[in-house]
Amino acid sequence: MTDSRHPAHRVDVTFIGRANIDLTIQVPHRARPGRTAKGSPLTVSAGGKSLNQAIAAARHGGRAALITNVGADTWGHHITATLSDAGVDVRHVRLVPDASTGAAVIEVTPDGESYVTLALSPATELTADDIGHATAGLTTHAVVVQLDLPPEPVATLLIHRRAPIVIGNLVPHPHLDLALLQHLDILVVNHHEAATILQTSTDDPVDAAAALRRLGPRTVIVTAGHHGAAYSHPDGSATVPAPTVHALDTTGAGDAFLGSLAVDLARNIALHDAVTTAVQAGSHTVQHVGAHTAAHKT
């Protein structure tokens, strides 16, 4: 049995969430009701927010690990191979027998916007036992958890924290007790997710970040696409503009942002500097087709 406390098994960031297969098609426009839109040949690749973030972290120079379940099928093995090839620690990627791996159908329009429909695989959803087992001997500087997971594993992680920095991402599951957000050091959401959580719309990501902080997280970062990002924390708030680029595909831009951010924070980079580099990473990603791009040089 390996000892996860051994220096070779220590990681900068551990990502907890879903991994799936992305089925991506470039379309001239989305299909109208009762009509068919013709698009590019289908591309099949490993995906899912946590997987994308872990690969982004590894390509940013970090030691990354992923905790997830996938089916013991062709897609599941493809996912583990993709992670291994990217240098991500896969000790806690579990292949579930007789289960199907989840998939995401992604339509990308000419303006680079992506439209994602996720087909979940209930048999591969993480459980509180999965979290307890995987994190029991975990040695990591930061943990990033997807808050849309079933509430039991998220609550287990937040209450029994195993890392100095705990980062939450996405709109929380509707049955998650929002009081648990006080256990987050950082909440990262995009401006659409912020509006969903707050049940209101705002054009100012700084205001949204400040409002979300009142739910309990110490620091909140709201990403705003080509406008960059804003953050609010106990010492104040600020915005970080994004460079002007030509977007080909926005798929994975937020994940590139979070992968970069988590590695820098795990390495004690100042928040403003970490957000600035993360915005650059996201802007780099949208200039390429697909969620995974080569490492961005800063």
Task: Walk me through what this model shows.
- The strands form 2 sheets. A 9-stranded mixed β-sheet has the order 5-4-1-8-9-10-11-12-13, sandwiched between helices.
- It has helices spanning 49-59, 74-85, 128-135, 151-159, 191-198, 205-213, 253-266, 271-285; strands at residues 11-16, 20-26, 43-47, 64-71, 93-96, 103-108, 114-119, 140-146, 165-169, 186-190, 219-223, 229-233, 236-240.
- The model is unreliable at 1-8 and 294-298 (pLDDT under 50).
- Strand 12 and strand 13 form a beta hairpin.
- The protein is built from 8 helices and 13 strands.
- It is α/β, with parallel strands linked by helices.
CATH topology: UDP-N-acetylmuramoyl-L-alanine:D-glutamate ligase
Proportion of helical residues: 25-40%
* CATH-scheme architecture: 3-Layer(aba) Sandwich
Q: By CATH's scheme, which homologous superfamily applies?
A: Ribokinase
Our count of helices gives 8
Biggest sheet, spatial arrangement of strands:
5-4-1-8-9-10-11-12-13
Which residues form runs of ≥5 with pLDDT under 50?
Answer: 1-8, 294-298
SSE sequence, one letter per element? EEEHEHEEEHEHEEHHEEEHH
> What is Rg?
18 Å
CATH class: Alpha Beta
Count of domains: 1
* Protein structure class: alpha/beta
In whole angstroms, the N-to-C terminal distance is: 39 Å
Q: Quick check: average pLDDT?
A: 91
The number of strands is 13
Query: What is the 3D shape?
Result: globular
Biggest sheet details? 9 strands, mixed
What fraction of residues sit in β-strands? 15-25%
